[in-house]
Specification:
By secondary structure, this protein is mainly alpha-helical. The protein is 83% helix and 0% strand. 3% of the residues are buried.
């Protein structure tokens, strides 16, 4: 990113938000899809639950890191 934007530090929060929001929506929708599909197939329910838990943990950890290290 620093090669493309020499002043990347100014744009970093905006770029992270642009990337994080669709990523979170995609991960959560994928987890829900696994849950729905799992009810039809049986074993995939566990995978959907695990995917949703992982997304929640990653989002909470990254938000805590951003609060500790604001730039």
């Amino acid at each position: 990113a620093f090669m493309v934007f020499p002043n990347y530090a100014e744009f970093e929060p905006t770029i992270k938000a642009i990337v994080a929001v669709p990523n979170t929506i995609g991960e959560l929708s994928f987890g829900v899809w696994l849950l729905v599909k799992g009810e039809k197939m049986g074993n995939a329910v566990i995978g959907g639950v695990i995917a949703i838990i992982i997304v929640i943990l990653v989002v909470s950890i990254s938000s805590k890191r951003q609060k500790k290290n604001p730039k």
